[in-house]
Design brief:
This protein is of the alpha/beta class. The chain has helices spanning 50-63, 80-83, 126-138, 158-166, 180-195, 227-234, 246-253, 266-273, and strands spanning 35-43, 68-72, 91-92, 97-98, 100-101, 107-109, 145-151, 171-176, 200-205, 210-211, 218-219, 238-241.
């Protein structure tokens, strides 16, 4: 840290790049696992549709012929199983856990798939939550995955820091909404990615506009978009805008996200597919 008197000597929970910093090794996958690309989906605050974007990207990736997986790192607020209507429990052995397959064979691991009851609260402190995320990487048998999406918890706290430092992230997607305050929060997420030396592949603005079904005129219900301005400021080439869409929201709430129809994220998926493979 910049002030040695304030240093806790816990490099894992610190983002400072000081001379005393210890290198944190990337966690090793299970011997029976294979993951070629890892993409983290991040938001600076909750409620902007991060899990929706994660789910949609995974569905598009699977449709495109990639073997796709979702690691749900939002331990205290897991919503991925709901989007895919998954209620069965994950199975495993003494040494490994098997992800649950969605209807279209997307491999999914979430804490809700391990809890006795889906509504049980997770009252854990940060280090335990971070440890659980690491175990989803090290103890789960990920079967020949081409692209893994990590649904991150909101903000820039312990778990995102653990993911950036402990997992081999190839890039991140930042999700936002049109409000000006959120644009400021996006900058925090982008700056965190820069500090961790992880490239930002794209910005996604959810609830960007409403398109009238009769005249097809677009209305900015939550204020004019600033996503292109933010992207230009940080040199981010790829942006996407998802409209307010009742069918999309219903598909997610009813566990039918694999049936969604829309091309808003197609360009972003092509960007991800173009990344070099490990």
């Amino acid at each position: 840290m910049s002030n040695s008197n304030e240093c806790s000597h816990n490099c894992e929970s610190c983002s400072e790049n000081c001379s005393d910093r210890k290198t944190i090794p990337v966690e090793k996958l299970h011997d029976m696992s294979s993951v070629k690309k890892v993409i983290a989906v991040l938001s600076g605050k909750g409620g902007v549709g991060k899990s929706l974007v994660t789910s949609m990207l995974a569905v598009l990736s699977q449709r495109a012929g990639n073997r796709t997986a979702i690691l749900d790192a939002d331990i205290t607020g897991p919503s991925i199983p709901t989007a895919f209507n998954i209620h069965q429990k994950a199975e495993g052995t003494d040494s490994a856990i098997y992800p649950v397959l969605s209807k279209t064979d997307i491999q999914i691991m979430s804490l809700n798939l391990l809890l006795p009851n889906e509504t049980d609260p997770v009252v854990w402190r940060g280090p335990i939550i971070s440890g659980a995320v690491k175990q989803f990487w090290t103890d789960v048998i990920w079967n020949d995955v081409d692209i893994m999406f990590i649904d991150m918890p909101p903000g820039t706290g312990d778990v995102p820091l653990t993911v950036f430092q402990s997992l081999p992230i190839d890039g991140i997607i930042v999700v936002t909404s049109p409000q000006e305050l959120v644009s400021m929060i996006v900058e925090k997420a982008v700056n965190m990615a820069k500090m961790m030396h992880v490239p930002v592949l794209g910005l996604v603005e959810n609830m960007s506009y409403f398109e009238c079904p009769s005249c097809h005129e677009k209305h900015a219900l939550f204020g004019e978009s600033r996503i292109d301005e933010v992207a230009e400021r940080f040199g981010i080439e790829t942006t996407a805008k998802i409209p307010i869409n009742s069918k999309l929201a219903a598909a997610c709430d009813k566990g039918m996200i694999e049936l969604f129809d829309g091309d808003w994220l197609d360009g972003l998926l092509k960007k991800i597919e173009s990344l070099p493979t490990k």
